[in-house]
Amino acid sequence: MSSPQVPTVFAIDDSPLNLKILQRFLEKQGWKVFIAEDGLTAITEISQVQPDIIVLDIMMPGIDGFEVCRRLKAAPATAEIPIIFLSALTDQKSIVKGLELGAVDYIHKPFQQEEIITRLQLQLKLHQTNQALLQKNQQLEEQIEKTARTQAALMQSEINFAVAFNQSPDPIFIYGRNSGCIMDVNQPFCQFFGLTKQELVGVSRQQFYFWVDEQQRQSFLRDLLLWQKDGLVKFENREIEVYDQEKQVRTMLLSGEPMEFNRVDCLLFVMRDITERRKAEKQLKILSQACEQSPASIVITDVQGNITYVNPKFEEISGYKSAEVLGRNPRILKSGNKTQEDYELMWKTLASGRNWHGEFHNRRKNGELYWERASISPISNQQGIVTHYVAVKEDITKEKQQAEALFHQAHYDHLTGLPNRILAKDRLQQAIESALRQKHIFGLMFLDLDNFKKVNDTLGHDAGDQLLVEVSERLQRALRQTDTVARLGGDEFLIILDQVSHSRKLMAIAQRLLRVMRQPVNLQGLEFFVHGSIGITVFPDDGFHADVLLRNADTAMYAAKLEGRNMFRFFTPHMNQAAQQRMAIESELRQGLSRQEFQILYQPIVSLESGQIVGAEALMRWHNRLLGTVPPDQFIPIAEEVGLIVELGEWLLDNVCCQAAHWHSALGEQTFWVSVNVSPRQLKDSYFVAILQEFLQRYQVRPEWLELEITENLILEENGDLLKNLSDLEEENIALSLDDFGTGYSSLNYLRKFNFNSLKIDRSFVELLPHDNNTVGLVRAIIAMAHHLELKVIAEGIETPEQWNFLRLQGCDYGQGYLFSPAIAVEEWENLGQKPPFFP
């Protein structure tokens, strides 16, 4: 074995790369490394090198690691060298097999370099300790042997033999060479086995049944027989296990010396009971291994608190070597974060003889802080006097960090760093309890960004995230540090305004928040203006419970959105009625189609020049069994929001195509089209055009018989599926009409970009004609611009002959409204078609 200053390791692995990495790392640590890529080469070289420790792979060509281990342990020259398996096999069966073959440890691949060096050092130290213990045992056994020889020599003296034989405390028996039987025994031998001398003298070797292990007994009997033949076999310090008189297993050290007894060649056997010594050694070995290999840091001090022992784990965790701390007080680790009162309580507990459990925030040798969970116990002597203290400590720094990280992840929004819904509800509950104790009010605001989805759809989610971060920072800057700003998810924020003097203060704060939010935000080089809607509740006026306050704030926010957005609203009880009405509509809406509660009405589209009916707009109506007739402006936004609009839209297109085919079978080649409103969500559905094509083919409908109406706000969204669908509709020659023109923010660029056939002037303009000069000028401009772009113009909401005349004179192509006909059921169209053309 190499010198302890330069430990050697022999690594065996069929992977040159693994060997190279392991060799480079261990040599860097000051180790001398020998390597082999196969088991047979390694077995030959290990016998020559005699390394301190062996690192052995399992899965190798030729013979595997298990066979290599077996052969090395079978050879006397290599049997004592510790072997560590380093393998990718992680199953329990492989690990158990490796340890049964004699390996001292088993490390999984891929390995951590720190783990390899720690385990190598630990096993090498343990091996060296075991070797030292064996050497001491050998010295003791030699002393025993020397004593036995001395006793035998004395016994050979005729004068002293009888005295020595009978007064020896150890069991002794004399075995005759020629007779092959016990010739004599002393009294301790009789007492040990619970037999009389008469029962023992004359017993042949085949009758030696006091051995525990039959194989051990047979080996002893064979050696006795060989000694009888040639007298050359030695019986020196053989460790055996036998049953005593109480059938308890005892460990004995058996030594035999040739002698002449009554002029007969004999063997004088002395048996020394070493049972307790072996138990103590075993316990000491286990204790030593437990301390040295313990994953916990162990520190032992005397009653004055001076360190008398530390294990390797302490050195690893603290950074101090054993020699640096022996004789010193553990206070060298103090970080100053534990109070004097804490230490006094700890010593008071220990002084009373009780165990102390707690945590330390200590400082390593390099100054780094770390957390330890510790258990300190007093150690007493046989008189019950405390002589030492033992501390078992576990480094919980990572556990603390992980707990803090998990707490942060569970309670804070990962994007903005604001409290999330869980923490917000906890702080809301704290605000309620504080307000009840101190009898003050506080405010709760629910803020939702207006049209946030457009940012995600047009610029992408990264821009949306940037906007959310900017909004969160603005909100925090605009409020007090004692207030809480939380992100509930998406574009929803919750604001807790603690200890507000009056509800009027909440109004001023809401106005300030809306003002700071209206400032432009730079996203990807473009300026965006963000707005929000705020709902406000006041504790205790609007509720005593967190869930009630949250629900009411959400209701107030929704009311603010319905009233035009970019504003705030305080909660009022009637808002709950509106919210309940909305929930009822949503609930019944989901069953409306299956119950056949929907109906399609058609409103005529008239040529303003000829008065002839040239088309019809399909309008959906809903009559519910519980709610009665629900207006479209109530149920359609809800259907859009909850995703039912796609299903309703498909049902509408299916029926309209069927009706268009029926009308054209009667009209022949007469010009007539049916106009259908298409929701934004439908047009952003990637299957929309395919479904429409299926309806057209099913009912044999020509594309020119159909016109799809879309709102101008929709075309502002640069959504991929939307743009593709609009392009596909243009290829199918399906006409597009821009609905409610003038009420949104679209520009001429969008009218040029998409192939629209017509645009509709909203009824809000038509109802002011022809008396409002501003409206007159605006309508003239819309008609002129549309005709310049080769678009037809349809005016909605015509109710008077004056409106018709004005629009006709300005060149407006088509119109619809109550002047001509309200929306009617398809059964009434037959009578309508028989009437003469309309005239003003």
Secondary structure tally, helices: 30
Instruction: Look at the helices and sheets and give the structural class.
Output: alpha/beta
Helix content: 40-55%
Mean pLDDT: 85
Count of strand segments: 31
Roughly how many Å is the radius of gyration? 49 Å
Pick out its properties.
alpha/beta; 30 helices; single chain; eight-stranded mixed barrel
Please, could you describe this protein's structure?
The longest helix has 44 residues, at 113-156. The model has no long low-confidence stretch (mean pLDDT 85). A hairpin with a 5-residue loop joins strand 13 and strand 14 (369-380). The protein is of the alpha/beta class and 840 residues long. It is 45% helix and 24% strand. It is built from 30 helices and 31 strands. The chain is elongated, with a radius of gyration of 49 Å. An eight-stranded mixed barrel has the order 23-24-26-27-28-29-30-31, surrounded by four helices.
